[in-house]
Amino acid sequence: DVVFNHTAEGDHRGPTLSLRGLDNPGYYALDPRDPARYLDYSGCGNSLDPQRPLARALVLDCLRYWAVEMRVDGFRFDLAPALGRGPRGFDPRGELLRAIADEPALAGCKLIAEPWDVGPGGYNLGRFPPPWAEWNDRFRDDVRRFWRGEHGRAGALATRLCGSDDVFSGSGRGPLASVNYVTAHDGFTLVDLVSYARKHNEENGEENRDGHGENFSHNHGVEGPTDDPAITEARARTRRALWATLLLAQGVPMISAGDELGRTQHGNNNAYCHDSPLGWLDWALDDARARFLEFARGLVALRREHPALRRASFLTGAPGRRGVPDVAWLRPDGHAMQPGDWAGADCFGYALAAEEPARALLILINASTRGVLFRVPAPSHAWRLRVDTAAGAVLDTRARAAGVAWVDGRCAVAPRSLLVLRDDPDDGCGRMRGEAR
What we know:
41% of the residues are buried. The chain has 9 helices and 18 strands. The chain has helices at 19-27, 53-69, 95-102, 137-147, 154-161, 165-168, 190-193, 229-248, 287-305, and strands at 30-31, 34-38, 74-77, 85-86, 89-90, 110-113, 133-136, 178-180, 252-253, 327-330, 347-352, 361-366, 372-375, 383-388, 393-394, 406-407, 410-413, 417-423. The strands form 5 sheets. It has a 6-stranded antiparallel beta sheet with strand order 10-11-12-18-14-15. The chain has 2 domains: 19-292, TIM Barrel (Alpha-Beta Barrel); 317-423, Golgi alpha-mannosidase II (Immunoglobulin-like), CATH 2.60.40.1180. It has 437 residues and is an alpha+beta fold. Helix 4 crosses helix 5 and helix 8 (229-248) runs parallel beside helix 9 (287-305). Helix content is 23%, strand content 16%.
């Protein structure tokens, strides 16, 4: 994670620590109306000027060192639009951004942009050219809003599950340009996302004014810690649904360290200033944390096992080589989703075509507060349960297909949960054949 947009030298009041004392106009973006002051696209008082040869050389020298000497194979660029700014604002093909992408020493390195800064016109998601990938905050917000129960969010979630073609196709990139995430080092942890309705940053010393105010979080009825078993279970179920959605979506999943362990910052969504247990990883596992870690690992293994979850091209619904659509969207009654169905939907399913050697997948999603019966399409062989977020279960390829309830040929999906079924040709394991029709 590299921060080339500013230094620790603050604004025109200082301190003077490095670049200001060496060559102030050679490194910094100065205010043309008052060159004694800085343009500030970082929120930290100053901004490196990517138009200046010295500033560009500093950035490229640093990246070469990390790539060649330290063997780092990827970089996430903090407030990346600041590195493409010029007199007319952000230019996605600015000289420094092009130099980074064209640098031979960085060939094969992953280049990931945080596609916003705090300057005018700072939000630039989807505007970076190949080979850049970008943090996709629209994925974060759409997934959070769907699973906290906001009505009418199904269509947006479906777009994110397909790789966010509305964001990245215009720049000639595929779903691998989308770095999907539900949480990051900025903001709530995954546990806090389902435990707090508002931020609690009092310990930061800014009277809770810092940190983002809208987190699309949900405390499930009580703010913060609780011993109510119903609330505890509801939070755990939503957390599993969020994790599963991240791992099932097209694009590149980004996991915030500690979320797999149940890390909490006790509602603090801006803990950068703490070197204390608030921000440290606690490796001790009680039963609940161990169960979630096992579940989290299972979803990672499932994603690795199925190429259909890791496509280099967007899902479109168009027939593939075998005449089967790459994705088919389903209503609970088994019929295809129509354009008018999305606005009011809080539950839907989708089938992903098989990509050898893996089999086809059927994913059934229910964000409502009631159980839903899905009439599922007939499989080539038989549907077998792989994931049940309500039960916290990820079954491996040897597990018997137990635990799914079938009612008159329909598959029961619990409230606020999702199921993953696989079309399984293996007759040696328990399967579900005749019930699905």
